[in-house]
Amino acid sequence: MNTKVNLAGIELKNPVMTASGTFGSGEEYGEMIDLNCLGAVVTKGVASVPWPGNPTPRIAETYGGMINAIGLQNPGMEVFVKRDVPFLKKYDTKIIVNVCGKTTEDYLKVVERLADEPVDMLEINISCPNVKEGGIAFGQDPKAVEAITREVKKYAKQPVIMKLSPNVTDITVMAKAAEAGGADVLSLINTLTGMKIDINRRTFAVANKTGGLSGPAIKPIAVRMVYQTANAVKIPVIGMGGIMNAEDAMEFILAGATAVSVGTANFRNPYAASEVVKGIEEYMKKYGVDDIQDLIGAVR
What we know:
By secondary structure, the chain is α/β, with parallel strands linked by helices. It contains eight helices and 16 strands. The strands form four sheets. The chain has an eight-stranded parallel beta sheet with strand order 3-16-15-10-9-8-7-4. The chain has a four-stranded antiparallel beta sheet with strand order 5-6-14-11, with no helix packed on it. Strand 8, helix 3 (142-155) and strand 9 form a beta-alpha-beta unit.
């Protein structure tokens, strides 16, 4: 049985990875899950300098999911390179670094710093607010998507994954813009903007007022967007959004995703990603499928 998938020349032993921001940089889950079983570990967002993140409270549970407004808290690229890369290199899994920034220059500093580090791919989080454009996310303007993708590609030595925001009118417009800018792979969806109000305290459940909604509640939207995107571009797509088990993962793969990311499920079940790996193998055995390539985009 072949579970290997290829993302822009990078071969993963299986299509399962972790979603950025839900798995730390691997060490946080390393005592509970064998990282060797994963196709890839996607790190928490890394910025050029340390970011403190948003004020607390920053997470609130919702029906079928959660809202987070962490604000991309991270220790910065120098700590990441010295501490997290050596840890991940101990394991037989691909390393994908999620990169965030508030200006194009912020992104490019991290991309340049990582150029000669032993990491396999870069995932560019374009849901970050672009401070030079009044706070609108890079990923909500197709011209900005294409421009930042083109700039990142000039400096990146690793294949580039552009992570798309679902908070747009037409996801295929953004996908095509990233492809036009030279993206090697697309990943989607990032969180949907949501809000929860604490009726007893009569205030917002998270200090930022709004946050990113993730979890099972967003899966049908995510599957639809992955299907649309996979049929609109010629580059591979990584699907995510509410994957709790192998059945959820298979929906994304059948819709056209070459690989999948497990995110919010990690908070509820630290073994979720490894269980998805086993579940996909069991699905293939059940239906007599020898090669996962036969399943990618099988639903048209």
